[in-house]
TrEMBL record:
InterPro entries according to UniProt: Lsm1, LSM_dom_sf, PTHR15588, Sm, Sm_dom_euk/arc
Alphabetized GO MF terms: mRNA binding
Subunit structure: LSm subunits form a heteromer with a donut shape.
Gene transcribed to yield this protein: LSM1
Places the protein is found: Cytoplasm; Cytoplasm, P-body
Taxon lineage: Eukaryota, Haptista, Haptophyta, Prymnesiophyceae, Coccolithales
CDD domains reported in the protein's UniProt record: LSm1
Protein name: U6 snRNA-associated Sm-like protein LSm1
Keyword Protease (UniProt): no
Amino acid sequence: GSTSVGKCLHAHFHLGKSESDEKVVLCAWRFRRRPRGVMAHAPVDIAALGLTGTASLAEELDKKILVVLRDGKKIVGVMRSFDQFANIVLEHAFERVIVEKRYADVPLGLYVIRGDNVVLLGQIDDAKDALTTTTLLTEVSVDEILEAKAQAEEERKLKARLSHHLSKSEPLDLDG
């Protein structure tokens, strides 16, 4: 993406490769006040730029992330791309379904998430993720977790209907 830095510097950021074949963010800049301009490329530390909004997603490129959606789904995958609307492309994505103390990972493959559905996004540390899931949760089959999820949803709906019904009924008269 492009951004104006100060009043006289215009910068354009893009992914490139360093001499050691590492992915780096390159910054091409040009001074606006000079007619002929000065163009240069240099590796840039994205975190040091203090980018805000969607531009800050550049820090998460090619990293394993967890995305929590508005409907409560938890999607995990490697972030490969994003745009100015925070639409995100995840590779090797899966939905982590957790019901009580059981979980399963439902494979999704390449997955596109619309930006306005994102509630929370963060990087995952594989070691901590493995430790947390093995100590706190029990892994089960996809079929078993989907059945448990459907049952939990049915129980939630029943509780909501019962609560709604009780709130509309007449209060009990304990005096008479």
